[in-house]
Amino acid sequence: MAVLDPHKSHQLVRDIQSLLTLNRNILVRWIKAHVGYRGNDEAGTLAKKAITEGVVVKALKPRCGLKQHLKERF
Questions:
Q1: Full-prediction pTM beyond 0.90?
Q2: Where does 1-74 have alpha helices with state H?
Q3: What distance lies between CA 31 and its chain's CA centroid?
Q4: Distance CA 48, CA 42 (A)
Q5: What is the C-alpha separation between 5 and 18, in angstroms, rounded?
Q6: Of 68, 46, 15, which is closest to residue 2 (Cα–Cα)?
Q7: Tens digits of per-residue pLDDT, 6-62?
Q8: Dihedral angle at the C-alpha atoms of 65, 16, 28, 9, nearest 10 degrees?
Q9: d(C-alpha 51, C-alpha 70), whole Å
Q10: 21: left (phi over 0), alpha (psi -120 to 50) or beta
């Protein structure tokens, strides 16, 4: 498993390793593409755009988190 290998150079692996040293809980799930998960198609589109265009893309926050976001902001 890449996360357990201290010699991995991929930035994502290093970021996860750093979080683990801070005793953070991390849950990683594999989601099969295109099987009806809400937001899955948009996530795939944004990921492909980031890879091909090399830009950071912003996605809207899900509606379920909107109330909390507004409380924090205002």
A1: no
A2: 11-21, 40-53, 66-73
A3: 12
A4: 10
A5: 13
A6: 15
A7: 776 778 888 888 888 887 777 777 767 666 777 778 888 877 887 788 766 566 666
A8: 130
A9: 31
A10: alpha
Q: Give how far the C-alpha of residue 17 lies from the chain's centroid of Cα atoms, to the nearest Å.
A: 15
- Cα separation, 51 vs 19, whole angstroms: 24
- Residues 6 or more apart in contact with residue 37 via CB below 8 angstroms: 31
Write out the two tokens for 63: 């509606």
Residue type, position 27, single letter:
L
pLDDT tens digits, residue range 60-71? 666 777 777 778
Q: Which residues contact 40 (CB under 8 A, 6 or more apart)?
A: 31, 33, 34
The residue whose two tokens read 């996530």 is 43
pLDDT at 12: 80
| Token reading at 26 | 């991390």
